[in-house]
Amino acid sequence: MTDDTTPGRLKPFLAQWDYIVEMLFGRMEGLTNEEFLWEPAGEVWTVRMVDGRPTPDAEVWAPEPGPAPPRTLAWTLGHLGDGSATRADWLVGSHSMRTGDQAWPMRAEEGLAFARAGLDTWRNGLAEMTDRDLDTVGRSAYPDGLDPELPLIEIVWWVNKELIFHAAEAWYVRDLYAARNQ
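Predicted structure:
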């Protein structure tokens, strides 16, 4: 939802965000626990129990030469939920959340709720921004990215790109899962 106080240049990003989130969760209807943790290849990034705590194989996607391994839906939805919630905390929250603070779910229902909560928190924080905020370098002060060095509008672009990229990835993993025994 946008209103008359939403900066005009932010409105397309919010509309795009709302549409992709709606499509993502529509496409995830009926997700089972088996499918949530299904590994589409021999080497994947997923969420595993480590010392009694659900732990992602990799929490962030550091630039490396070559591609990252395929991801499970548990990893992809966890990454979206955790990354969005953590960035939102640095945008409008306590500025204290760090990578590794949240336990990533290992069950489909909890994973979907975790992803939705993080995505909604970021989106709701953006809805509070003004034109001045969008131009402010470091307005999204998340310290583990370029946020302190870029105007917020560039971070908005980046986070939207992440949502689109990982939503498409999740859709494709569902397609692969459905086709695995055909």
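Summary: The chain has a mean pLDDT of 94.
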